[in-house]
Amino acid sequence: MHSLPATITALLNKPYSLTAEQINFYQQNRYIKLKQVFDESCLSFFNEAISKRVMLMNSETRPLDERNTYGKAFLQLFNLWREDETVKELVFSKRLAKIASDLMQTDGVRVYHDQALFKEGGGGITPWHADQYYWPLESDKTVTAWIPLQATPLEMGPLEFSAGSHQIIAGRDLEISDESEAAIQQTLRVTDFKHVIEPFDAGEVSFHSGWVFHRAGANTSNETRKVMTVIYMDKNMVLKQPDNSNQINDWNTWCPGAKVGEVINSPINPIIYQN
Ligand SMILES: O=C(O)CCC(=O)C(=O)O
Q: For ligand 1, which residues put their CB under 6 angstroms from it?
């Protein structure tokens, strides 16, 4: 493995203990925010490494006012782990992967893919959506770790959740767009699901499942909201017949060679944690 400062390697391997209450909370609400997953030195180490890699990979040059709603939401770079040995240490870290597995109550997890989501100063909203619309995955045992690389106050556009909204079917067929923002907001307005809008402390990480509805506000600050995400799936996840062209694209891109009806075991979906 790539060599990192020993204290950082130690933290990446150190289990984060979840209480039964926290696991129950996640199972009911399909999101959870966990404080002190990382310390300041680990966060600033990966902030630097991920920022450098994003600058190298980014090809977006248009000013914000020339982009559509999706384009204004963030710079989006994928599978940094395949490009950067340092970032791979975070993406493959036992600490994060064990939390993902424990929350989903699985025997282990694979990587589906990772994404850096950098919402620039002045960047727009991330419309309401559910991630699993994009994923050709048979079960709902999927979870995204959303890792802000700095403290994220409300003005920077932290991730927001509709707690427990994985129970709602309406809106699951919408891609991220002005339409998904309006339609899902309309549906959620007449439900009792709590809309959770909270800042993130430095080192705090949230985990949300594939069918829970979530969004983010605009970044009204002058600073980029830097976030790294890792998407995990049950180690026994089966590929399903895709429902839409985005799912066909995801199949070809994130699990190439996997077969419908079989466990996804492509070289880029390794098991990174098991009990
Ligand atoms: O970072 C954002 O603004 C949105 C993130 C998101 O939708 C996700 O990680 O699933």
A: 73-74, 117, 119, 126, 131, 144, 146, 159, 214, 216, 227, 229
Joined tokens for residue 102: 């424990």
Q: What's the CATH architecture for 34-253?
A: Sandwich (2.60)
Where residue 219 falls (left for φ over 0; alpha for ψ -120 to 50; beta otherwise) is beta
235 phi and psi angles, rounded to 5 deg: -65, -20
- State the DSSP code for 244: S
Distance 43 CA to ligand 1 centre (A): 19
79-88 pLDDT per residue, tens: 999 999 999 9
Per-residue model confidence as pLDDT tens digits over 24-75 = 999 999 999 999 999 999 999 999 999 999 999 999 999 999 999 999 999 9
CA distances from 235 to 124, 206, 265 (A): 35, 21, 9
